[in-house]
Amino acid sequence: MLNPKVLKALNEQVAMEGMASQAYLAMACWCENEGMSGCASFFYQHAEEERMHMLKLVKFINDSDGKVEIAALNRPESEFDNIQQLIESAYENELSVSKSIDELVDVAEKANDRQTANFLQWYVDEQHEEEALYRGLLDKVKLIGIEGRGRYFIDKEVELMAAQHGEGEEE
Ligand code: OFO
């Protein structure tokens, strides 16, 4: 049986992962409208992943005899000045999810709930990977530059990342 504070924090994280999924879906659509199909594939993929993260939490709450609360989600940002600003926004999004996961681990540890703390370790590792991914992507975008053919090269680069990531998922 989950401690009420832990359950509340887990449900807040369900909403947070859902919002991350919606945010990436909006980013994928923006990229598609801009003709950046490689970036669109990448963000469609990540929208799916965030949904998977949300469902993993839902299953954990259900398996722990807790009650899942499905919250209304805030409308995500859907207008961006350019691809660099979009990726900066994605990176900031990941930083706030990491902060939220850290706080959730704290709540579980304070409640002496080792099962939840242990379960959340997967999210801690995932956030570490995702922060590195988006930081690396941002560095590349800055290096290539968004002017002239830069957008084309960024799109090709991100398309490759999406393809490699897709192959990794199939393994
Ligand atoms: Fe849910 O993995 Fe990042 O946000």
Per-chain topology:
Elements: H1 4-33, H2 37-63, H3 83-110, H4 114-144, H5 150-170
Helix pairs in contact: 1-2, 1-3, 2-5, 3-4, 4-5
Describe the model.
The protein is mostly helical. Helix content is 80%, strand content 0%. Helix 1 (4-33) packs antiparallel against helix 2, helix 1 packs antiparallel against helix 3 (83-110) and helix 3 runs antiparallel to helix 4 (114-144). The longest helix is centred in the last third of the chain and has 31 residues, at 114-144. It is elongated. The model has no long low-confidence stretch (mean pLDDT 96). The site of hydroxy diiron-OXO moiety has 9 residues, from helix 1, helix 2, helix 3 and helix 4.
Can you write the helix and strand succession as a string? HHHHH
Mean pLDDT: 96
Q: Count the strands?
A: 0
Assign the structural class, choosing from mainly alpha, mainly beta, alpha/beta, alpha+beta, or little secondary structure. mainly alpha
Measured as a percent range, the helix fraction is over 70%
- Helix count from the secondary structure assignment: 5
Q: How large is the radius of gyration? A: 17 Å
Question: What amount of the residues lies in strands?
Answer: under 5%
